[in-house]
Task: inverse folding
């Protein structure tokens, strides 16, 4: 069974600082890995998807890396803003998604 | 185009009653998934539909849970004889094909009293 772990569980940073969110998984037989954002009381917003053959994916201030052999992915958010405050979820896709517990980010103005 | 929609957005029911939750996937998406998020816990996979193939029901927690999908359109998740531990947000997602990006609906918040 795929196990997905996210560290840290929570993170508080001042505005402008770069964020580094970590995700690890136990089974490397995956299609891809998705990063989501979840705002309180709302659904999931897909941020980035990295195919299993890729090492990196970028979208604006977001950059995600994937090292399938070591079972790790990292989400970098540059120059954080208060609007980035949310819970970030990593999900490993082996056709169904296996989610980590999330990292709750607070960006202080 | 329209995203994944779910109804109702909120549902309050009494223990022992049956409930039915509905999901409308993105048009043209062959794959549809149901997940559950209980308060303070992570998202759990429940069931997966791919086209006309037999669904993967491996995540359903008990035989009180069932789901149907008509072709590549609407899906309903039914919970019979609801229990308090069924209280959760039930999320539906769809993808163009198996293994591709999953797009989530806003969820149905179920509260069993």
Result:
């Amino acid at each position: 069974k795929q196990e997905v772990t996210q560290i840290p569980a929570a993170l508080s940073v001042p505005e402008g600082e770069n964020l580094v969110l970590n995700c690890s998984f136990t089974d490397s037989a995956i299609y891809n890995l998705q990063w989501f954002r979840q705002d309180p009381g709302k659904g999931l917003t897909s941020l980035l998807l990295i195919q299993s053959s890729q090492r990196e994916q970028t979208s604006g201030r977001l950059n995600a890396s994937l090292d399938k052999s070591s079972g790790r992915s990292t989400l970098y958010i540059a120059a954080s803003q208060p609007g980035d405050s949310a819970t970030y979820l990593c999900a490993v896709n082996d056709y169904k998604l296996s989610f980590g517990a999330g990292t709750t980010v607070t960006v202080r103005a | 185009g329209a995203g994944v929609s779910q109804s109702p957005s909120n549902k309050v029911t009494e223990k022992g009653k049956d409930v039915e939750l509905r999901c409308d996937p993105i048009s043209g998406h062959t794959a549809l998934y149901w997940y559950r998020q209980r308060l303070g816990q992570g998202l759990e996979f429940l069931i997966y539909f791919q086209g006309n193939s037999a669904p993967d029901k491996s995540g359903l927690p008990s035989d009180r849970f069932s789901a149907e999908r008509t072709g590549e359109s609407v899906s309903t998740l039914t919970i019979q004889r609801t229990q308090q531990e069924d209280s959760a947000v039930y999320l539906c997602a769809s993808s163009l094909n198996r293994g591709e990006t999953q797009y989530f609906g806003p969820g149905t918040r179920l509260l069993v009293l």
